[in-house]
Amino acid sequence: MEIVKKIVLNNKEKETLLSLWNIYYPEQFYLSDFDDYLKNKNTPNHYLVISRENILGWLFTYTLENEIFFALIVDNKIEKKGQEVNC
Predict the structure, then answer these.
(1) Among positive and negative, which fits the CA dihedral 63, 68, 69, 74?
(2) I need a surface site. Which of 19, 46, 48, 82 has the fewest CB within 10 A?
(3) Angstrom distances, CA of residue 81 to CA of 53, 68, 74, 78, 85
(4) Buried b (16+ CB within 10 A) or exposed e, 52-80
(5) d(Cα 49, Cα 52) in Å, to the nearest integer?
């Protein structure tokens, strides 16, 4: 398992993250367009937890109106596993 930092996501990564988002976030936060969600976020940093070419987690930091925000999704396959990952 590794953590990969990215500034820009490719289409496959966006599709995977959209699917994870809609599985793990409540229905009122459902997203239909991942690009639409990302478009107003400034200085994005994406941290992908990857195992065997599968995205199992995502941390996203960004600024909005001069404040730092984040979103976090962890697939239940690794949730509560207590694994350490080197960056």
Answers:
(1) positive
(2) 82
(3) 19, 28, 11, 5, 12
(4) eeebbbbbbebeeeeeeeebebbbeeeee
(5) 10
